[in-house]
Batch of 4 targets.
Target 1
Amino acid sequence: MHFTREINRLMFGILLLLGIVAVAAAYWAVVGPDTILQRQDNPRLVQTEAEIRRGSILDRDNTLLVTTTLNDDNSLTRSYIYPEFASALGYASLRYGVNGAEAAFNNILRGDTVNNDILNQLSNDLLHKAKVGSDVRLTFDLDVQQAAVSAMGDHTGAIVILDVPTGQVLAMASLPTYDPNTLDQNWEALTQAKGNPFFNRALQGTYQPGLALQTPLLAAALLANYPLNTPLADANQSVQLGEVSFSCVDEPPDTTLTLQSAYLYGCPYPFAQMIRDIGIQTVQSAFNTFAFERPPTLTGYVTNPADQTVQSSRFLFGTDNFTENALGQGTITVSPLEMAVIAAAIVNDGNAPIPHSLLQVRPPNTDVWHDEEGVNSSVPMLTADSSRQMQTIMEAAVDEGAAHAAAQPDLTIGGHVALAYVGETTQTWFIGFVTMGNRQGAAIALVLEDTSNTDLAAEIGGQVLAAAQEQLGVITPQPTAAS
Amino acid sequence: MTFSADTFTIKHEHQPDTARIERRLLVVAGLFLLVNYLGLTLVRNSVELEEWVHLGVWVIGAVVGTALLEHFLPFRDPLLFPVTMFLSGWGLILIERLAPPFAERQTIWLAVSVAAMLVVSIFPHLLRWLRQFRYVLLLLGILLLVGTIVLGTNPSGLLSAPQLWLGFGAIFFQPSEALKIILVAFLASYLAEQFPAIRSGALGGNRGLSISPRVLGPIVLMWTICILILVWQRDLGTAILFFTIFVLLLYVASGSNLVLVSGLLLIIAAGLVAYKAFPVVQLRMDIWINPWPESDGRAFQIVQSLLAFAAGGTFGQGIAQGSPTYIPVVHSDFVFSALAEEWGLLGTIAVIACIAILVARGMRIAIRQEKRSFLALLAVGLSLLIATQSFLIMAGVLKLVPLTGITLPYLSYGGSSLLASFVILGLLLRLSALEN
């Protein structure tokens, strides 16, 4: 028995080592899926992602906007059919992630929200069936979007159009934009492109409002029972705010103006008088009512202004900068979405609708659409009387005031144009609405950068509102699960 | 009836159950392969005649192998042949799935290997020759080593890759695969002769720590061979394999724990020196200690290997449904990781169990032959070859030990490796069939 002891020991040692190998394999098999498998450098994640057949995106009329097609080599291509929608729908790129509506409804489009029964789930897992996402039907309207982008032309800026009273976003554009179909190839150039095409100005823009704040200020005056029709001599004089001298947007027919007529022509002086008269507390209270401290969001989208410092201190009124802030040349910044909500509240008897963009979801391999966001609630901003008065004044601004370029035949359009100054550059605002009676219509806010052409802004606004009005009359609701 | 052409007599008196057990196990292995080939066909959605021809070659190898073994070695171990055929079949389908262009070559090597196994196990004089001509063997081994250092090449043709092969036209052979069997045979023969002297006190026995030239000689020789392999060929795996086998065989022969401790210390010392001296060793150590910061660089292979284990989970992704091909050279050194991804933890445990069975049966053969020191040491050495090589690569791809570029016996792609593994099987089968 020369070697028995040693051989047995060796056997034990080898079996022990093989056991350790088995334990290590078990460790990675059990712990790995929740740890290392989630690492960003795991190519399997990219592969799994690449195999997901994302759902299609359709507009409110069921027009296909974005779809996924299967190529001959079994790879998938995400196709964006209408370039006008780039800034609203965003992109879904394996390399660069998701943005816009693709990001907002990513979990739906990826199929994460699909409820499979156990058998289906088991079969999918066993057969490694690629995940298929649900289709989404958005509130966007192709015709309104095309009208908006076409009207904006090559101008840098943003535009948002809301349906009233639902708050559905009919169109949203930020310019300059990009082609999501060639995103991967052009990424480097786009990230360095002038105007930052990836920045969604409509939602994330932190714009100086300037005299666009005349609309909420006029509402504040109404709420404070401030007389709108008291004449004021030399009311067309300019107002000096820091280094900027503000004067009327459009030359008024007379130098004696009331607060209401000053609004029509965008004259600042009567408003400077008014805010001094009603005082800082009233103005601040009115601005808070307009939610300037916490601007509205669009579900799923990134709406936080890029500069959080500005955001957190945006409404710190002090006596030193009170006039500048109240007349939109201080620390307050606003987004076009925010201004569109104010315009919508004016149409909707003072109730600000909650903006949203998702109408319905259709699970894969079915024909039935399910309602997703039944958002019909609203936030009160003004009294019904005040808002109706505001409507009338804004309609007068289009009929005879500075926003006259927004007028469209046979349409009831109200609006207001204003300028804001940022350093050496000027921004032009138009906020407005088209009404169809019974609190129905569309509200709009748009801003053009590097221009003081208020007629252009009003003209764009009028054209887009006309397109919206035309489309709002022809929408065919889709069958839902309930119906 | 006795078969006495050999020095060591073959048992041949009663018809045993061996054939029945072997056949049943081979049928199970065949069914496993059939199911997996069907799975592969379904996943690929095309019937490739070549794939089925490869399976046919395996079936022929199994049928002919078991028939000839039954005729010549009726008292052989009933598990060794079916388990190795199972593993090599699994390896074949892995290569079919991971690197289809290499599958045909691997199939040819499988046929050659089964034939070599049969020759080795049936040839009557081999064990005697191995014992008698050990110095000729050693010389042959050294010539092979020197030949590889001088004439070595790499099948890829890359000069930067390790030149561990000898080329004969389109056929490449890795001499270290033959060398490891030669080494075991030499050591078994040498230690079988010397072990009484060694046990009498050369290593910590009655005469304390004084080491006689009898022991020192082979130690120095082995050390030299290993260092040569490491320095000239940058073949860390083979160097560690050789030295480990040597230390463990010396331990069995000497019965001294001191050998184990010294061997371990020498490996650590050599590792530290090699870490400083050789960039390849430094790389392997660095990525072993912490691969994550360089997961997309130098540690890409090992990180992808661990990801494969994680992706496989318990039940695996299924054949051809995982993504093990992200691991570079997956069909060779990382075949265990690929198997883990597609057959899961159950697959890896099955492979580990098969290796454990092979080693355990090899050790059992050694214990049964322990009165004949050479045969016992040869069986131990051959079992250790399978065990050590399997452990080094399986633990390496799991980041338990530093990666050493060696193959997993019977499963990895590589003709020389498969041939050598089947020669080991042939020797073990013959040893198992000898009378006690």
Target 2
Amino acid sequence: MNILETKGLTKTYGGLKANTDIDFKLTRGKVTALIGPNGAGKSTFVGMVSGRTEATRGSVLFEGEDISHLPAHRRIQLGLAYTFQITSVFRGLSVYENVELAAGRTLADRPSLLKAKVNSVLERVGISDRSNQISGDLSYGHQRILEIAMGLAQDPKLFILDEPTQGLAETEVDAFISLIRSLAGETTILLIEHNMKVVMATADFITVLDQGMVLAEGSPEEIHENAAVQSAYLGTNVDA
Amino acid sequence: MTSSAKSNLLHFGMLAGLVILFFILPIYHVGVLSRVMVMAIYAMGFNLLFGYTGLLSLGHAMFFAAGMYGFGLAIKFGGFPVPAAFVVGLMSAALLALVVGLLALRTAGVAFMIVTLMFAQTAYLVVLYFGKYTRGDEGFILQQAERSLFGLDLTSETGRYFTAFTLFAVCFIALAKLVQTPFGKRLVAIRENEERARMLGYDAGRYKLYALIVSGTVSGLAGVSYALLFGYIGATFSTVQYSIFPLLWVLLGGAGTTIGPFIGVLFMFYLIDISSGYTNAYMLIAGVVLVLLTVFAPKGIAGTLKARAFPWLP
Amino acid sequence: MEFGPHLMLASLEGAVISAILVLTAMGLSIVFGVMRIVNVAHGEFFMLGAVLAWYITTFLGGHPALGFGVALIVAPLLVGCSAAFADRAILKRINYDPDRTIVATIGMLYIIQQTTLMTFGPEARPVEAPFNHRLSLPWFEFGENGFVMTWPWGLSTTSYKLFVIIAALTVLIALWLFLTRTKIGLIMRATQQDSEMAQAFGVPVGKVYSWVFGLGAGLAALGAVLVVPIQQAHYLMGHDPLLLAFIVVIIGGLGSLPGTVIAALLIGMSDGIISVFFSPTLAKIIATFLVAMVLVFRPQGLLGKTVP
């Protein structure tokens, strides 16, 4: 069974059609990248999957169950994790406390396990040395890494990342690519990205959105060759 | 010394200090401190919702009054003994908090403030409307005999002080512990970034409701305590002014800290005490303090201390 | 008095209440609409208008109409200026942050109220109306002789009360013209729509805010000057108008001026009628509870935009 499926997922705002009839499948354990020009409806789509945005029409199935009417927090409890396009951490709290809150949902009643988990996640993404810093004081790039850490701390079945590498330095981007590769198999990943280097280096599958609809789907090679995709991207800034 | 060790030392030190003060202070100040401790319970209840969860209610007087009237009316009309009336008072406040929470928490921000203000105003008007039983603004008194517990006279200065102290200490420690639990930390998370908290899988709506119920019940406990120890129940305690007071106290002392509420009440009591010797417009001081605080020192006394010098301050 | 004439009397009283209420609520609504803040001290600006009117009429002496006329112009101006000053001194510094603004305006409420207590005193003091003629009102009945006009005893109003209704209407129309036809009005509406955009176009948003805050306070003060010959000036008189204005603005829809007018009519009329036929306390209970429910279940009120 596919870990995630959407059927006819649509979002309209008044007269504006942000997403129209999206049928989408995510294969378990694989990395799928969602790409498309600005305004294609990627964030809206992912918002409907995670529950942040209410769909106008259509359904979302997670592990075979219809979650279309569940509020966001219930979906997260089922095993979804989500990082925001615009970094959203607990700026007044320390790095440690941020990750502790993320892992705490499941581990709060086992303090030693919780502590171990938080420390190992911080280690894995490379910000252990900043554990006691107030997260609002971190650089933008580090805040983004913190957010990824918060996602990891939940041991999600499906990890949705909305433009995770935006604002990261080159070395940080490389570290991110390794991190994603290391998660392969255990976690299913849905990645919205503009950075083609990251997409090509990590994605098993790519779905291209344009003007709120699915334009093309396939392996990275297939998408690379696809003429329609190339023309959709003409004129937009893409990091190659 | 670890942070939590320092916190414990601070908390127990403060409580020990309060005990010692009873033996040192002149009787007048002992009386003031009794009142301060009862109102500090109210402030701590408010602080849980405002300081820790980030919800500004402008109607908390309704919870204080629910406790006060629940207790008072149970004794006056129901002939209840003190312990039973105590429970009635607490349950009244808790129930009111539940109902208000289910309605008011559907709104946020400014709307929440106005809704709570309006509910409290309705409560005040209802108290006046049923003046036949509540005696409205004039209020009614509970006799000393009605207020004794297990034969102990709670109305002497000593009885008052130590009863107030016991109730205060229990709330103080309980709430200090509560905010250290995962529940408490999640409330802070909701205050800091509610959407993020939701996207970590926390049912923010449910947590806010629980916070409101605890906050309302503690505020109700303060109302019960006041009626028990000072024997007076009146509609004044459900006016807007009594909803503003805990905001003033908590802001002054430091919102979101454990000792802030007590400090705030203590300061304001003495500030008003001193200024009412000069003029009957002593609320002017409250106004000036509120403006100065929010413009120059929004963190209050304990909050500023925490930010500048003592980061471990709970 | 029979029911019919009694209802007419209550309606007239309601109309006067509506007239004052629409001015007061309009002030609150404009401030919220443009600045997105809730001014809890609004009622105190109302009270200041009445108190200043007393000082002016007492100081000038002479014919009541003279003092009143001056007060009608000077009091709102003075109150508006002090409000603008308060905006610059306090609200600007806290950057109109919603939580802090509420706290600051609560502080302002006590400062204004208590200073008045210290200077004006705790008593209520009357201000004489500029003119006051009792006007008997006719009532129409179908009798044996067809349509007949009667003059029930007790069914009367005063020329001054009619003046209040007309004055409020005039001010409302003037305000509407001001907001829609003048350049300043346009700037205010632009700032309301999108303050960042307005700023990008060179609109001095800070100054506009001070103007708007002053205008809001001035409108409340004007309403108070109009009502003080009927009511008397008292340092606590701002409390009820504040709550009523809140109710009107929320039911009409925060930020919607037509909504404010309609709601003021509704609330004023029903307050007048319920107060006459039932108890004033009950009227207030219903109104207060209703407004809370409106905010919970229909936050945009009758005609308003979404509440932040």
Target 3
Amino acid sequence: MKNKKSVLSNENIALYVRSYALMGIFLLMCIAFAIASPTFLTMSNIIGVFRQISTNGILAIGMTLVIITGGIDLSIGPLAAIAGVVSAMILEKYPDLLLPALLSGIIAAAVMSMWTGLLVAKMRIAPFIASLSTMSIAKGIALLAADGVPHTISNAAYIKIGNGYLWDPNKTGGLSIPTPVLVIFIVAVVIWIVLNKTKYGRHIYAVGGNENAAIASGINAARVKFCTYVLNGLLCGIAGIVLAGRITSGQPTAAAGYEMDAITAVIVGGTSMTGGVGKIGGTIIGALIIGVLNNGLILMGVSSYYQQIIKGIIIAVAVLLDMKTKKN
Amino acid sequence: MKKRLLSLLLCAAMVMAMLAGCGNSKDSGNDSVDDKGTDSKSEDGPDSGKVYKIGVSTQAWKYEFIKNMVNALNKLDDDMDQVELVMVDSEDSVEKQLSDVDTMIAQGVDGILLNCLSFEGSSSAVEACKNAGIPLVEFISYTENEDYATFVGTDVKSSGIMAMDLIADAIDEKGKLFEIQGVIGHTAQINRGAGIAEELKNYPDIELVESQSGEFSKDKAMAVTEAWLAKYPAGEIDAIVAHNDQMALGALNACQAANRTEIKIVGIDGDAEALQAVMDGKMAATVVDYCEEECKLAVEEMVSILDGNAPKKEILADYVPVSTKEEAQKFMDLRSGN
């Protein structure tokens, strides 16, 4: 018993308890929906839910990093849209250059996010305002580049990123893993490693927890913040590619308003808005809770009016329960 | 030093990104000029030598439909010698639209074409024009304050009626129908939904099983359709009608991914992607809002009023049902280069 305590700090224990509490909320929701709708637990529906949360999940993982540093990024929707538009337009002109097109899309999003990073880290503008600036610029650039209209993606491999499976589900009785789920899995694992096993990861927590203390201990806080926004931009780019593949077009207005879903997933997942605390696993469960909620309410045929009310209540309940378990 | 270099590089990157963006838009601009040859039946009136300067305030250009409209207006500006159009993007802000109208009045335009953003909110623009003694023609959407010279547009409800008729045609007037609604409370959702509901009564053998909102977004409509496809096995969904084309295309993606291509899908708007899907036989039909025609009627009406003729108060254009390859091709050609 004593041994365990020395390995796990109090805060770590609290975090573990919190993830279990979240898991509990998530499972309760699943059980409730399974009782309410026989379709809920069918293979095709479960696969559908995982597919639907992939874009928001990837965005939320990036948002988790930003929020742990004590920041926020409102520009993620337009950043994702830029990646989709750029890659779709390159493919329109050069149908064979799939990989360069995808990379250009992702890099375009990352380059745009440098603007936020610069404003926050170098000019010390509040992240909320800095990312509002990027959001507006990125929206404009996406519209300009696409000339305001969606660009259809006809490349089969690109579409597979959003709509495909790792193997044909018909051969295994409907059981398969959708490609976007593989993407989010890889992203989650890589970011988990970055956050938990690297010096940079520890610096993210340090800067978010107490910036002055971090600077005093020799951490280049500005650089950590700048890198985090750019890393978030890269993830937005990846999410944008997945989304574009799913909706088979690069749309300049795609992902509009997605920042709110991403922020919700992060907060429901137990990350503190004041920075310094947060886990990737929690964010994934947060994204799953939102995804299951959307799906379950549609399956039950609940009208849109009620859906919005129910979502608002469940978000509040999830966070409240989470806070309670944290205190205990 | 290193940091300064980095920030310089960043600025350079930003500028490059901006330039890349502008470059692209220029390209497509050229495209649309090229395409002018395909359909330039310019209806130039007798050259009286007088050029009317007409201010145009529109809904946000970021929407494909509004973009088509702006392109059509640009073309009219080029084709008609007696008008000069000054176009402003309201960027989805009613306040900006109102101040844009004030600015145009101050600039001394001869008349104003208003594609209003809000039924109630844009009404004060009508007052402003009236006080300035400038004729106001509203097009495509109209304001609560009816003190304008003329409204040129469509009856939005009739697009819902037409969509329902196209669905009925596609499934031989019997079967199970699903409806994907727009943003709940949005004017287009209310009116298109009302049209669909009204016309549905004429088809006793068509059953509306479920309605859900796809919020006018392709992605959201896809999620809604995927849930339905999981809930209702093959044979229990015959048709899906969506309040706009993007949602219809989202439903199409979901149906194709699930191998449920027997489901007939109808949308509204006439987006390029939807027209292509009709041409490829993937979508049953779409209802095209022929905005090019409406813009032409609006500009012509404004010229007629400025020439001293009495305003016609209301000019209604018809929606165009598109369910065949040939019809879709016609609009594709008209709008290519967008």
Target 4
Amino acid sequence: MNELEQTTSEIRSLSYLEDAWLRFKKNRIALFCLFILLFFCVMSLIGPLIRPYNYSDIHLELKNRPPCWEFWFGTDDLGRDVFCRVWWGARISLTIGLAAALIDAVIGVIWGATAAYFGNWVDEIMMRICDILHTIPLLLTVILLTVFMGTGLKTIFIALAINGWLNMGRITRAQILQIKQSDYVTAAKAVGASTSRIIFRHLIPNAMGPILATATLTIPSAIFTEAFLSFLGLGLQAPLASWGIMINDGISSMEFYPWRLFFPSAMITLTMLSFNLVGNALRDALDPRLRS
Amino acid sequence: MYLCKKTFILIVSLFCVVSGTFVIMKAIPGDPFMDERITEEVLKALHSYYGLDQPLWTQYVRYLKGFVTLDFGRSLVYTGRTVYQLISDGFPVSAQLGLQALCLAIPSGILLGTWAALKRSRWQDSTAMVISTLGISVPNFVLASLLQYFIALQLHLLPVARWGTFAHTILPTLALAALPTAFISRLTRSNMVEVLQQDYIRTAIAKGLPLFRIAIVHGLRNAILPVISYIGPITAQILTGSFVIERIFAIPGLGEWLIISINNRDYPVIMGITIFYSSLLLVSIFLADIAYSILDPRIRKVHRGTDHE
């Protein structure tokens, strides 16, 4: 980054995103994963509608059917269509993942930016709070909250919001501190740029990359946390079709009805894998140091 | 100074966990003995037996005292058993499983990461990174159930579940070690790549030393440091992983006890195990920080809660 780039900041910020997209596109695997995720998003909306069954309708006479033309992914021990349930699970997981990423991003960015902006003792106190929260494992928070508030979506959201944003807070703070001390911001201040201009033209576009990548990588861990809790019976409850619940049901009967385990397992693995790969690719693509 | 700060954070965190657990447990609406069949007198007797008739403040002080003397009270469901007994029954099993997983994960993670860094941008690198991405992306309960299905149920190579001989421990250990292995290998790779670009490594290469020797003697020593500072998160991964692994393989460990006691609403046991696990984690983070600062004196000056990843 030098003064020349600073004078043409408007063009640069546009070409930065374009450049990032070009580099992201070069990563074929990540691009493929992005398509998988888009497909999952679409299917989570229309998937349960294209089959004539409901995720919670019980048909005991049709129980444990293997995958066939009538039931594409088979049925479970209560005769529920696994295809419908899997896409309902996708709906739950994607909602939780995206919402958690959004919540974490908002809290983390505000926290990190405040700490970095005020500096001194404000920064010191805010970062010590982070340190302390960081040592308290997410899962124990969740378990205590579950005991306190009962199981359900609300508990999972609150637990994810309590210490999911810590990483984001640290990254935002580090980014902003680094940018604040950089030469081009000093130069912009010297030529009399207003604070808002510095924030919107310099701080935000430059800090955007790591924040976006971190937010993307939050999604798979949020999805995992929900499935993990539901698996243990501490998350969502039946008849909701969470992947964790389906896998837990599937394990008990995997010797005879393995499809009940395989389909939800494959879905959650593919989703987490895709988000991880897309997140890593985004981090590389948005890193200004790697620009060609 | 550094040591003081870390000790202070350790104590404050421990206090927060212990007090937070107490507050949450007391804030739960209702009573563990809510049952229409219980008469007034029985309820009173139960309350005084468990010390629930005392004022909150006295209960809190007693509870803090109990924490220091490792006395977490008695189980509400398994009458006559203390939380301490439950922990001393379950923890050795969990500890064996966890340590086995650590012993597998640390060397294999470091090896995989070093290998990837040495063969950077070649097929070996991509293979290692595919393995580690899979390790991070496949949830441990999925991996455990697939291992159980294919290796134990289909191929009959190892026992399906339960605890006993060494053969019983192999599948749970593998399932538990996958995530930390992937995590460590990525960490090692990125550190190693950075270290290999340093001047002293270039000098060593220029002197004509074999690359393998350089990697071991010069590279690894520096690349391993950040792994030590990540012992805390790795311990957390193993602890939380053990909850599901113990359930899937029907292992009588502490994680399984915790889940059972949550479903039973057995509050003293939940509190006791939560505090026990949190303390274990906090102490391991503390020790890792201390070890790190001893091994790398630079850290005392520069460390400002930055993220190494």
